[in-house]
């Protein structure tokens, strides 16, 4: 069985629900608690290199999570076929294009060289934006040709996909329906 290691701040915070779930499932794990002051040395690029980039990343991340939540809600919808089809059409024709327009502007204003914030390969929002795009493309909700209409977003998508470790993972990733 795999040995799990949970790395989080020396407090409850967002990791507490994970600790509770692991304990309830009788899963042994190493609870590696770190001091907040040590965080930048461990993960300096995930949320931006300074407070301003962190603020930019956080604001874009919230928009990404909203988009992801909307997509998940569509997949889990218990509405009738006609209502669900109408919701999916609105998502494809309005929600995603508006979000991509906003991301394109955001990246052009704050990113650099195909990154969402600064010049960081995998800051949190870059990774999450890639994941959302990868998912909507996988499900045919949005076409790659449509993503290309948003050049900054497309560049982020292609740049993340081309990173050697990510490309390897994607080439070996098992097929899934969601």
Automatic annotation (TrEMBL):
<dbReference type="InterPro" id="IPR004046">
    <property type="entry name" value="GST_C"/>
</dbReference>
<dbReference type="InterPro" id="IPR036249">
    <property type="entry name" value="Thioredoxin-like_sf"/>
</dbReference>
<dbReference type="InterPro" id="IPR004045">
    <property type="entry name" value="Glutathione_S-Trfase_N"/>
</dbReference>
<protein>
    <recommendedName>
        <fullName>GST N-terminal domain-containing protein</fullName>
    </recommendedName>
</protein>
<feature type="domain" description="GST N-terminal">
    <location>
        <begin position="2"/>
        <end position="84"/>
    </location>
</feature>
<dbReference type="InterPro" id="IPR036282">
    <property type="entry name" value="Glutathione-S-Trfase_C_sf"/>
</dbReference>
<dbReference type="Pfam" id="PF14497">
    <property type="entry name" value="GST_C_3"/>
</dbReference>
<feature type="domain" description="GST C-terminal">
    <location>
        <begin position="50"/>
        <end position="178"/>
    </location>
</feature>
<dbReference type="GO" id="GO:0004364">
    <property type="term" value="F:glutathione transferase activity"/>
</dbReference>
<dbReference type="GO" id="GO:0006749">
    <property type="term" value="P:glutathione metabolic process"/>
</dbReference>
<dbReference type="InterPro" id="IPR010987">
    <property type="entry name" value="Glutathione-S-Trfase_C-like"/>
</dbReference>
<dbReference type="InterPro" id="IPR050213">
    <property type="entry name" value="GST_superfamily"/>
</dbReference>
């Amino acid at each position: 069985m795999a040995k799990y290691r949970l790395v989080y701040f020396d407090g409850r915070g967002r990791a507490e629900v994970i600790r509770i779930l692991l304990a309830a499932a009788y899963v042994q794990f190493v609870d590696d608690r770190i001091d907040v002051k040590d965080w930048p040395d461990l993960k300096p690029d995930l949320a931006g290199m300074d407070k301003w980039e962190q603020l930019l990343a956080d604001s874009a991340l919230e928009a990404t999570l909203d988009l992801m939540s909307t997509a998940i809600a569509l997949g889990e919808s218990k509405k009738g076929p006609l209502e669900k089809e109408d919701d999916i059409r609105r998502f494809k024709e309005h929600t995603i294009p508006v979000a991509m327009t906003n991301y394109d502007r955001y990246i052009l204003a704050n990113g650099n060289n195909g990154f969402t914030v600064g010049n960081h390969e995998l800051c949190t929002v870059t990774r999450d934006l890639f994941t959302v795009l990868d998912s909507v493309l996988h499900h045919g909700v949005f076409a790659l040709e449509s993503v290309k209409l948003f050049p900054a977003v497309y560049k982020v998508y292609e740049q993340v996909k081309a990173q050697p470790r990510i490309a390897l993972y994607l080439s070996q990733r098992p097929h899934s329906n969601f």
